[in-house]
Amino acid sequence: MQDRWEPPALAIFPIAPPYIRFDPASDADHLCPCELSPGTIFGLQICGRPRSVEALGQPLHRIRSRFPAVPIVLRLSQPLDAEAVHLTQLATQLHVRGAIVEPEPVHQTLRRLLTNPVDLASDVVEWLSVRGPRLPPVVSHLVRQIFRLAPGRAEVRALLEEIGESARTARARCRKLGLPPPAGWLQVARAVHAALFLQRAPSTPLLEAAMRLGYSDHSALSHQLRRLFGMRTEVVRRNIGWEWLLDAWLVRRSTCVALPRASGAAGV
What we know:
Layout: E1 9-15, E2 41-47, H1 53-66, E3 72-77, H2 82-93, E4 99-102, H3 106-114, H4 120-131, H5 137-149, H6 156-162, H7 167-176, H8 182-200, H9 206-212, H10 218-229, H11 233-238, H12 243-254
Parallel strand pairs: 2-3, 3-4
Antiparallel strand pairs: 1-2
Helix pairs in contact: 4-5, 5-8, 8-10, 9-10
């Protein structure tokens, strides 16, 4: 007979800008996404030892699906032990964005964890499989390539030629599925990369940042951030992470175009 075991209990500690400290623990089932400030982050504390990725994955997937605009980091307490390492390994496989070990400074640690992703392109495609719109493999590959190459590329036709895609075919695929066209994905990919740069370098003058990012001037960058995300540059810079921005873009687009939402399993 197998040992009986209970799924791990997950405690959620929200933290909103300016990221001074985590709020008291909340039950995710009683939190309303509309009540969370843009840029909110969840600190996840796991009580009990998950026996597998699947044991932790199901409740974590429910939280991510309900709060797609909120990145999650693992909260750990000193001293670290083998169990903490095990939890970190499991959580990383499930797309938790990193671990903060108390008493590390919250703001600086979150900025380090969330503004310099190792593979933003793959993270975005995986996130879309949870949040929606659901992308078929050929389109998910296209979006991944666009996010990978977006920095320094302003023309979508040249980018598509670089990856061996027909501009006409790519547009037709997106249009058939009711998805943003390749040019739209490139615009938002450039804007997300720019937002993360601004968050990583909060003291860099906006004009200098715009020129380094390939924009003609600071007003061009500010205009694109406001047009795509509906946010002023100072808000984009102050609030950490990219999920809330990409979610805002999709919500704004959904007022004009019905985008398909993801449902069921998280596979692409």
